[in-house]
Design brief:
single chain; 513 residues; alpha/beta; 2-enoyl-CoA Hydratase, Chain A, domain 1; eight-stranded mixed beta sheet; 21 helices; 17% strand
Length: 513
């Protein structure tokens, strides 16, 4: 009697793990794609996955609709690098991975478990979207997921991998998570598909151009990473998790390093050109001050005039925010302000200190920027820095002009320690613009305006565009030798590691979204 029941269990187990059947699995493989369970198996540590709700089926009243165990999504928990995570993966072999009532309930349940246990939630998207046959109950399922996304925000890390289609309202769950990874030429996300765009607007557009990985990584900013294939995607998830804490009440994992915290590097100053208006790659400076030269960049292809990402200093995770003179001279604009603000808010939510490296000539001028809301979007960066209570260390390397100086982690935004290299230029305006205003009359009546301008620019730079006036006022805490940048930042991070701030009691602030 018992043997029969055990036999039935294994029959049902095999049936459930078979998803939509061998034919559907073969079709998935023929597209070069793994199944939901194969993805989970590769992502999690061996033999750690525990599946829940394996035998759930849909509750549709349509008698002709076949019932599949699992109902199109695999959910459960396991370990990544020995750390607990919770996971859900849409199963495209079952009704195209479409989401119905019970699939929605499964995902909401696993997210709730993740919050209760204080562990990251990982989602793998490969879905045709809402299950049309289930009507409003499918939409209701998405609504439940969105609510859980909001509840989990700032409590546990949320990471989404798009390894297939994701359309309609389904796209908003990934967008509400902390990080989105898309596999190129496989992952697709759009609110309305190419057919609808053609029908309504008479525009022909491909799936890839409308909602492919490159589009969302370079233009919309939805995707934080582009992966070459599924294996690269999974590697990125594992690497990303290594920099993050389990939840908002813990610290990120400490990683032993042989890199001396007092290491000085004479190469740092040689990176900076003699001419302050020449380009250089800020990533070189980041890598020279980080443990073992390792930097994990976020949003690499979007708003490239600002760099954000994770590094370790003295074995601890830090969030790096830095201007990139290679693009738009490092000027701040709409997209870079939004990109940096969101990253800062993530770091602050999860107790990750923020290190800011500054070289910016100001905000990007132009009618496009003004009419599209640089004031509104630029205020996000100010808000994010002011709001963050984690240790904040800023180092001004080159230019720091006007409002952009203020926005890039300046002292009155609550930054704890502000350093500057001797090469720093801190001013309301750059020397050329400043003397054009201040000495307009002298230049107009000068017999050699060009020579007069050069002299006035040099005088202004020597007298005003340097870090020492700010240091005299206590706005810069120390002017440092560039080669000592790493130890000086690390000593400040250690000193402020137990920092506590009290803020006014409120429900939440009202960031200008």
């Amino acid at each position: 009697m018992h043997e029969e029941k055990i036999k039935k269990l294994y029959q049902l187990k095999k049936l459930a793990e078979g998803g939509g059947g061998q034919e559907k699995i073969d079709a998935q493989h023929s597209k070069g794609k793994l199944t939901a369970r194969e993805r989970i198996e590769i992502l999690l540590d061996p033999n750690t996955f525990v599946e829940i709700d394996k035998y759930v089926t849909h509750r549709s009243e349509d008698a002709n609709e076949k019932k599949y165990y699992g109902d199109g999504v695999v959910t459960g928990f396991g370990l990544v690098n020995g750390r607990q995570v919770f996971i859900y993966a849409y199963d495209f072999t079952v009704l195209g991975g479409s989401l119905g009532e019970m699939a929605g309930r499964k995902i909401s349940k696993i997210m709730e478990h993740a919050m209760d246990c204080g562990a990251p939630i990982l989602g793998i998207i490969d879905s045709g979207g809402a299950r049309i046959q289930e009507g409003v109950m499918s939409l209701d399922g998405y609504g439940g997921i969105f609510f859980k996304n909001m509840m989990a925000s700032g409590v546990i890390p949320q990471i989404t991998a798009s390894i297939g289609p994701c359309a309609g309202g389904a796209v908003y769950s990934p967008a509400m998570t902390d990080f989105v990874i898309m596999v190129e030429k496989v992952g697709q996300m759009f609110v309305t598909g190419p057919e609808v765009v053609k029908e309504v607007l008479s525009q022909d557009v491909s799936f890839e151009d409308l909602g492919g990985a490159k589009t969302h990584a370079t233009k919309s900013g939805v995707a934080h990473f582009v992966a070459k294939n599924e294996y690269d995607c999974i590697d990125k998830i594992r690497t990303l998790l290594s920099f993050l804490p389990q939840n908002n009440s813990e610290e990120a994992p400490f990683v032993e390093t042989s890199d001396d915290i007092n290491r000085v590097d004479p190469k740092l100053l040689s990176i900076l050109p003699e001419n302050p208006y020449e380009q250089y790659d800020m990533k070189q400076i980041i890598k020279l001050i980080a443990d073992r030269g390792e930097f994990f960049e976020i949003h690499e292809l979007f708003a490239e005039n600002i760099i954000v990402g994770f590094a370790r200093m003295a074995g601890r995770s830090v969030g790096i925010v830095a201007n990139q003179p290679m693009y738009l001279a490092g000027a701040l604009d709409i997209n870079s302000s939004s990109k940096a603000a969101r990253f800062i808010r993530f770091c602050d939510s999860f107790n990750i200190p923020i290190v800011t490296l500054v070289d910016t000539p100001g905000y990007l001028p132009g009618t496009d920027q003004e009419s599209n809301g640089i004031i509104r979007h630029g205020s996000k960066l100010l808000y994010a820095y002011c709001e963050a209570t984690v240790p904040k260390i800023t180092c001004i390397i080159g230019k720091a002009y006007g409002g952009a100086y203020i926005a890039m982690g300046s002292k009155n935004l609550g930054t704890d320690v502000n350093y500057a290299w001797p090469t720093a230029e801190i001013a309301v305006l750059g020397p050329e613009a400043a003397i054009t205003i201040i000495h307009r009359r002298d230049l107009k009546h000068s017999p050699d305006a060009a020579a007069t301008k050069r002299k006035l620019v040099k005088d202004f730079r020597d007298k005003f565009a340097n870090p020492y006036i700010a240091a005299e006022k206590g706005i810069i805490d120390a002017v440092i030798d560039p080669m000592e940048t790493r130890p000086m930042i690390i000593h400040a991070l250690v000193a402020f590691s137990n920092k506590r701030e009290s803020r006014p009691v409120r429900k939440h602030g009202n960031i200008n979204l």
